[in-house]
Amino acid sequence: MDCLLGIDNGLTVTKAVVFRPDGTPISVARRRVAQSLPHPRWVERDMDGLWAATAEAIREAITTAGCRPSDIKAVAATAHGDGVYVLGRDSRPLGPGILSLDSRAGTLSDAWNATDIAARALDLTGQSPHASAPSAILAWMRDNQPERFAGIGHVLACKDWLRFCLTGTIGTDRTEASIAFTNVATQAFDREALALFGLDAVWNALPDMAPSAAIVGGVTAAASALTGLVEGTPVAAGLHDVTASALGIGGHEVGLLSIVAGTYSINEVVTDRPVTNSRWHCRSAIEPGQWNNMAVSPASTANYDWFLDQFCRAEQSEAAASGTGVHALLKPELDAAFGRPSDILFHPYLFGSPYGSTASAGFFGVHGWHDRGDMLKAVLEGIVFNHKAHVDDLRSVMPITEARISGGGARNPALSQMFADALDLPVHVTSADEAAAWGAALTAGAAIGLYESPQAGARQTTTILRSHMPDPERRAALAARYTLYREMAEAMQPHWRAIERLAEGSRRAIAT
């Protein structure tokens, strides 16, 4: 049987999925990839360790799929965007990969945003500076790790490192290339975008750019030995994971809102012209002459995972021992919380926010009669409200009539319904399982001619499983709570900065 392999590397897990051409996943294999946090705001990972874990996942996925390695006709990868993975001139990792959760460059990007650099960057590249952008991280490296910066031979994104490990070829695709240094109008790399940030020195280190559905090499003998893939199996360029998720659920189409409720709050709409604004990134879509407008912040279900890790450890242990999902164990508690009024509000800014690098998370309105379920409900509501803030920005200039959702929000019907009520939009959950990996596999399938294009493949294979329509009463109640949520976030901005100054003072005191 003919199969496709999609690789999806997130911020904590790398995954390999074998699919039938109709989008049915035959097997899924996962490996956890450890993060390193050697200093406050640093979030890194070992690049060779990432490849080793991914290779293990690929081998397991092929084995458990029950297919022959020769049945895998093409491979493509997607992975977290932003951050940076640099190689030396010998094509070996030049230090650890820096993830998009890293905010070491926050002070630098904040300084740029206080000058005309922000407006110039927006006009030229379609996006304002932010802490996890390669522009900010590379400039931080230039200023703080000059020897490392001077040794850079190649500037890659995470999925491009995996492509190199599979094929030995260095390059990127159109969607990934646009995260920092492309001209938003031409969709090509622009020297001026580097010069704007004082990064002229890495011009020759930028990778060649290919269409997402282009074959960029074949599996090498070394990669074959590690993964079990047949040597020479075609590998497509792949794409940025935000775009891959939208593609996988059939949402990478003009006018559709795609929501990814994962580690990041991702909200995206494709347009046939560039629409720039400081409140979102205007990046290249899969097809030339189309743009993907992405309003994002690292403030979505990572907050939920944090809550489970900190306050639900017994349930997590029980779930691991019994094979029961932790969400099922918590469902009665959460259902009870949804069935009663609550005055708790939560700002989901544990790892970042739309308000800059100094914002932090917080519960408001907690009283002694509240329980863990009330707090977990507030966390979920805060996640939805953060998405709503981004969606409201997008639809202020782009017509949006419906949404498709993937990530944790798609798996939890109560959360999907909350999205519909808060956004006042129909929210659809599609048949796509493992949406980002399937998006990558669609580019592989299009590259070998199984589909006319990745988007055509998505249209052929994706159906709507369930739809959530807004409830008028819940919509009105959430609208009032959302207004207060936003007012409190605005009021907290000077206090967040003061809290940050307190933390800096404590660190200095400890250091001395």
In short:
The chain is α/β, with parallel strands linked by helices. Helices cover 43% and strands 19% of the residues. Helix 10 (241-248) crosses helix 17 and helix 11 (302-311) runs antiparallel to helix 14 (372-395).
Q: How would you characterize the overall build of this protein?
A:
- The longest helix is centred in the last third of the chain and has 40 residues, at 472-511.
- This protein is of the alpha/beta class.
- The model has no long low-confidence stretch (mean pLDDT 94).
- The chain is 43% helix and 19% strand.
- It contains 19 helices and 22 strands.
- Helix 11 (302-311) runs antiparallel to helix 14 (372-395) and helix 13 packs across helix 14 (372-395).
- The strands form seven sheets. It has a seven-stranded mixed sheet, sandwiched between helices.
Helix count from the secondary structure assignment: 19
Shape: globular
**Helix-residue proportion:** 40-55%
Number of strands: 22
Low-confidence stretches: none
Into which percentage range does the β-strand content fall? Answer: 15-25%
Reported for the largest beta sheet, the result is: 7 strands, mixed
Oligomer description? single chain
Spatial order of strands in the largest sheet: 16-17-15-14-20-21-22
Straight-line N-to-C gap: 65 Å
**SS-derived structural category:** alpha/beta
- What's the rounded overall pLDDT mean? 94
Protein name: Carbohydrate kinase
GO biological process, one term: carbohydrate metabolic process
InterPro entries: ATPase_NBD (IPR043129), Carb_kinase_FGGY (IPR000577), Carb_kinase_FGGY_CS (IPR018483), FGGY_C (IPR018485), FGGY_Carb_Kinase (IPR050406), FGGY_N (IPR018484)
Keywords: Kinase, Transferase
